[in-house]
Design goal:
about 350 residues; mainly alpha; 3-stranded antiparallel beta sheet; 11 strands
Length: about 350
């Protein structure tokens, strides 16, 4: 009798622990929860989104990246009111009007005099879609202004490069493949659209990974690091590869599937030559981008496995420590979860 009671007690304890573990990694990603979290944890007293949340809001940088990510999420969930509020913040605070055109600061600081193509692309893409979805032509007009300035000031051999400094009128001569946004280039009918597709398609190396940098002056590729790859960059490039070629990047895709099927886990960085983990940490952004990539290439099985790992990462915990969670990570986790759940419910 005592043995039976002991057995029942152990089972109940195990169930209780499992329930606690489930609850700890079961934060809701519904629209109200996400917008409330952004407002309560990441917005400062002036209404700007900061890079880190909670107690770090007073000193944390304010990035155009964060505003763009949030607007992209708001577009996905159809929140027109909050979208408009963020658009007004964009216009009144990040915009710099010069003789050359209208630029967007990559960071909200008085002495910042440069943009970043990756942030501008995101803003343009989101405003173009927002203009159509919310029937607001001012979004589309503003997006076209930014696009016109980029093409006027920020090109090398007809290709948009990473940065431009309007105070010195100097531009970089590099294109990070992870910065390219083929959807924007296609919608805005970029004059050298085929070149961007070629840059992405030829960016695959003999190993499973991509080159990260293209030099339009020398028509050559470079690695960001000769020994390791950052999986955030790799997934961003893979997404653009798939969108531009309408194909899976086979060697990279097969490698990802092998890692997921054999180990059920992805790390933040890998050795470029051996394909072995270079670090021992996981990353919510890696899993989020992995989910987005898998949905892009219609690989629901891999998306499901990566989503299950994403749910266990800190941004989706029941009580996250927002002091330690970058908005980039929080927003990508929320965005990927929303896309995954929408895809699942539509099947």
């Amino acid at each position: 009798m005592m043995q039976h009671k002991s057995f029942v007690a152990k089972i109940l304890l195990l169930l209780a622990c499992s329930l606690l573990l489930f609850l700890n990694f079961s934060s809701s990603v519904d629209q109200k929860t996400v917008t409330r979290t952004v407002k309560q944890q990441y917005k400062n007293k002036d209404g700007f989104i900061t890079s880190y949340g909670d107690k770090e809001r007073g000193t944390s940088p304010i990035l155009l990246e964060s505003l763009g990510q949030y607007m992209e999420y708001l577009l996905t969930v159809g929140d027109s009111q909050e979208f408009e509020e963020q658009f007004l913040l964009l216009q009144s605070n990040f915009t710099v009007d010069t003789d050359e055109g209208i630029f967007l600061k990559w960071q909200l600081e008085e002495d910042v005099t440069a943009n970043a193509s990756v942030d501008d692309y995101r803003i343009i893409r989101t405003l173009l879609r927002g203009g159509e979805q919310f029937h607001n032509s001012s979004y589309i007009n503003f997006a076209r202004q930014i696009w016109t300035t980029m093409n006027k000031t920020q090109t090398v051999n007809g290709l948009i490069v990473d940065f431009y400094d309007w105070s010195s009128q100097q531009r970089t001569s590099e294109i990070h493949l992870s910065y390219i946004d083929y959807d924007v280039l296609e919608k805005m009918q970029a004059s050298k659209l085929n070149r961007y597709e070629q840059i992405l398609s030829k960016g695959q190396t003999d190993n499973p990974f991509f080159y990260e940098i293209y030099d339009p002056e020398n028509n050559s590729y470079q690695t960001a690091n000769s020994e390791t790859v950052n999986m955030i960059d790799q997934f961003l490039i893979a997404i653009q590869y798939a969108e531009s070629t309408h194909e899976k990047p086979k060697s990279f895709h097969d490698w990802v599937n092998t890692q997921v099927q054999n180990y059920g886990i992805l790390y933040g960085s890998y050795n470029r030559n051996t394909g072995k983990p270079a670090v021992d940490y996981e990353s919510s952004a890696v899993y989020a981008l992995g989910v987005i990539y898998s949905l892009t290439v219609d690989d629901q099985k891999t998306a499901e496995i990566l989503y299950s790992r994403l749910q266990k990462q800190s941004p989706l915990q029941l009580k996250p420590n927002y002091n330690d969670i970058h908005f980039f990570d929080y927003m990508y986790a929320s965005y990927a979860a929303t896309l995954y759940e929408e895809k699942k419910s539509s099947q």
